[in-house]
TrEMBL record:
Cross-referenced PANTHER family: CATION EFFLUX SYSTEM PROTEIN CUSB (PTHR30097), SLR6042 PROTEIN (PTHR30097:SF4)
Boundaries of every CusB-like beta-barrel domain copy: 230-305
MF terms (GO), sorted A to Z: transition metal ion binding; transmembrane transporter activity
Segments forming domain CzcB-like barrel-sandwich hybrid: 75-226
Domain CzcB-like C-terminal circularly permuted SH3-like as annotated: residue spans: 311-371
Gene source species: mine drainage metagenome
Record key words, sorted: Transport, Zinc
Family: Belongs to the membrane fusion protein (MFP) (TC 8.A.1) family.
GO annotation (BP), single: copper ion export
Any GO CC annotation of this UniProt entry: outer membrane-bounded periplasmic space
Name of this protein: Cobalt-zinc-cadmium resistance protein CzcB
PROSITE patterns: PROKAR_LIPOPROTEIN
Amino acid sequence: MNSLKRYLFPAMLAVALLSACQKKQETQTAAVAADPSIIKASDNLLKRLTVHVVGKGEMTETLRVPARIDVDEQRVARIGAAVTGRLTEIHAELGQRVRRGELLAILHSAELSSAQLSYLKALSQEGLLMSAVSRAKLLFESDVISAAELQKRESELLQAQAERQTAHDQLTVLGMTENDLNELAQTRSAHSLSSVIATLDGAVIERKVTPGQVVQPADALFTIADLSHVWLVAEIPEQQAAQVKVGEEAHAEIPALASQAIKGKLIFVSDTVKSDTRTVTARMDVANPDGQIKPGMLASMLIRGAAHNRVMVPTIAVVRENDRDYVFVQLDEHRFQLRPVKLGQEGMGYAPVLEGLSGGEMIVTEGAFHLNNERRRKELEG
């Protein structure tokens, strides 16, 4: 009897263990079947899949910050009137291209005519006193007048010359050139017309005047900009401010120009951080020979960060669903699991994995779309 028990107990134990293993396997199989993220691929589907091991690579992340196109302030002229007056003629329209020295407007100014009369009066007085001094010198040489009288005449001439120079300088301030002053001295005819002249080659981007308007020297009548170069201005988060330096080449994109990529030089990086936005202002000089880039356009500045060694996946392996990224991870020869991952900004056909995947795991690269369709079909079938 004891001998029978000795042989019977191991056999019963083996049966119990086998039964437990079968139940565990059945439980695992049921769990897999219940998990909608796991798909068992058929032999035909497997032929359409390409599986690769996940590896690491060096990735330089690019920071994209909002920016705007501004005029180059070093290529802008805000032009006003030199005197107070009333506009009688306007020769420049908004958007018109003008050349340096071109006439923009004409105004009538009583202030200008009054200053011209003062200059002509001072000029005449200077001429009379010059003649008086010449006569006084002859009379002094003939002992007709004393030295004191000659010195008095010379002193009066010096004062008249100073007054003439003051009137000359006043007309220069009021916008008259040396040629204008020479013509005034020859014709001895004052006029009240003052010209507003372009001081820069470029386009008229602002016109704030109408005919008959009274203007003053403090008023900006026209703004002319040379748009052959423009500025791209961006606000860099203070955490990335150390990555931008004056003189470096920078890249940008302009959505209005079909995200056209442009290059330029960083010409300014602010030394201070804005307290309200915690950003640093950076300016990039952009060549604009054809005038397609227009002030006011929105843009993005692309800032290259430091290189990092990260787990990388090809973008062809990524499945996008419900605004989330997934990849298919191989569990065994036939089974694959749809796993959510968090990816960084892609570049050159690859994206860095921030969360959800480790190096050395096997993922589906080509054919992930077909595998996901099969998973959806089986999920709908229940």
